[in-house]
Each structure stands twice: as C-alpha cells, then as structure tokens.
Amino acid sequence: MTRCGQLSRFAEHPRGRIATVSGFYDVVVVGGGAMGSAAAYHLASRKAKVLVLERFRTPHASGSSHGQTRLIRRAYFEHPSYVPLLNAAYRQWSELATNTRKAFFEKCGLALFGRPFDVVLAGAMSSATRHGIALEEWDVRTARARYPSFRIPDDHVCLFEPDAGYLLVDDAIKSMICAAQEHGAQFKWFEPALSWKADSAGVTVKTAKGQYKAAKLVLAAGPWMPSLLDLPKLSLKVRRVPLFWFGASHDLSKQAGCSAFAFATDQGFFYGFPALDAAGIKVGLHKGMEQVDDPLAIGREMTADDLAPVAAFLKRYLPSVAPNPSAYSICMYTMTDDEHFILDFHPRHANVVVASPCSGHGFKFAIIVGDICADLALKGQTDHQIRFLGLDRFAQG
Length: 397
Known about the structure:
Blueprint: E1 12-13, E2 16-17, E3 24-30, H1 34-45, E4 50-53, E5 69-72, H2 83-100, E6 105-106, E7 110-114, H3 119-131, E8 136-138, H4 140-146, E9 157-161, E10 165-168, H5 169-182, E11 186-188, E12 195-199, E13 202-207, E14 210-219, H6 225-228, E15 237-246, E16 260-265, E17 268-273, E18 281-285, E19 291-292, H7 304-317, E20 327-335, E21 344-346, E22 349-354, H8 366-379
C-alpha cells in the first residue's frame, strides 16, 4: 500500500492497479470537498473502485470547506433529528483522528448566549433534553465570571455544551483524502464534471479531458450543485459568506482555555472560535448576504458591508477586540429553502446519490454523510435515519 503524500502514478487498489485513463468504476464522486472526500473514504474502505473528480485541488479556499475551523456540537437547535447523525459523526471523527494520528478534532466546549426564550436556545435545549446531551445553563453572573472579555446583557443566559468544539478543516479533509487514497481511491484534481447522464446500465460523467463510466454516481459538488442536479423546480441559492479573524487578548486563546462561542442576537446568529494562532479569534455571521450567480466569479475582496455587522457585534459584545481584521476569507453556502440538507437518491435515477447542499451547517456531518453515501451507492439503503433530508419535501422537475 502506498503512503499518503507519496502516491505513485497508479494507486494500489484491492482489486488491482487503477489506470489513470478513463475506465469503468464502481462509483464516480463529483466534488472532492468535505462531502466528496468523505464519500470516497467510505466507499474505498469498502473495496469499491472509486474516482473523484474535483475542480480544484483539495483542500482549497474556493468553495465551502475552508476557513481554519468549523463548529461541531450535538445540542442541535436546527432540528433534533440531526442528533443521531451527530452522535455517529462524533464517533467516526474520533476514529479517523486516531487512525490517521492527526489532531484535527478539539473538544473545547461551546458557550451559547441569548435570551432564554430565543428560538436558538430553545432548540438547543429541546435537542439536549430529547437525546440526553450534557448542557449546562448559567445565569448572567456565572457567564460573566467565566468570560470576562464578553459584555453579556442582563437579560441573557448561557447554555454551555462541554462536548462541543471544532474541527480543523484542512487537516480533517486531508485525513479523509489520505485514508481514501490508501484504500485505492483515485482523485483527479483540476478536472471538474461538465455533465452527466444515467440509465439502467450505469452513469457517464463528462469532463474536458474525457468521460468516465461507473455503476453509480455521487453528486457532492457544493455550490456547483444547482447546475449539476438537473432539477429546475428545486430552488437552490448560493450565498457569499465572509469570515474574519481579529487580534485578541490572551484570555480569548486556546491556550487560556477559551471555548467556542455563539450569540443569538436580533441582528443574526454570530459565532466564534478561540484564538489558535497570531491571527486571533475567528468570528462570523451565520448565513450569507449576497446571492452568487457564478461560483467562479464570486467577489473575494472584503468590503465595508462585509465587515459592518461583525464589527457592530464586536463593539457590543466583545468591546476589547479591535474591529480591524487581521485576516479574512470568503466561502459559499448552498442553501435549500428550508435550510436543511439534501441526502437522497436523484428522483429520476436510482443509481445517482445526491449529497449536497448542506445549507451552511454541514461540515461537522461530513464523515457520516460519506458513510451514508457509501450505503446508498453500494447497498441501495442505509440504516441511518435520513428521511427528513429527502428530496420529496420539495417540488421537483
């Protein structure tokens, strides 16, 4: 078996050596970001012959899966049905980190601030109660003592989830790609899928360099899904989302034991991470601002409108943090109308699995989404409860 980072022109595969020319595969995966890399990892580990077609070279900063860190939490305010998937994701992230000897999964806790009746806090409490998740409720005095740099309003409480934390994005994706390659998966970088077709005999995916045939297809292309899905009545919107880093005092650092944090405010849901390096704390506003018509033409430069809501948040809630960013990045959220995932078979093709979009909160689920994709592609079903993420909740065409 070849070692990751030292792969030969032909990657070893349990069935033999995989040629770098077009051929027949068990599964072609379109998109090599978080979801596609996870799918490749699980498919290849089950001895499937896998090809991944990726527009760039993963990890990269031109899609949805970048920006240093992503939150992982189980008291899921978005919907309690996600919690069993999160429980499985926690186990699989831990296993992958152990197997690859990469420290990309950090349980630092999450402090969620807001008014007691806020829908975000109520949703987190509901999920915690239903699924037995440890969630501590602090009054404002306790919260202020624990977070002296925060200006916490008198009418706020804090829900602290000790088992929450963050994933290091690039290291997590590299670990999945490495594991996939070591099991024989082939990745073709800088070769995006241009089109695909499917029938009872299999699928064919066309790129600028040729075409590839397979028994099954997994579509996991993030912001390129609207053009690839071929479902004109399905409304998918790509949003441009800015992320910022700010210099901060030592008490907001990982070394000082600062947790991740989030505030449910009248202006939106703001989240942040402890400072991991000299760039400082990372802060963002969940959900995008402007709609993106062409993911390749997205504006990458920071604007005053990008910074304004985050600067106002810092001024009100973290006044010791100067609102002059030390770094910034732009990513994309691909949103469904109800802001939940799509994880299902294509309605017209039982040999095509749809594993995106994830509406801006999917990275933490990537490893279990990959497992589910492998189930659907290889077995035609999964034991994981994903009915609530099905395409049948939308009008299709």
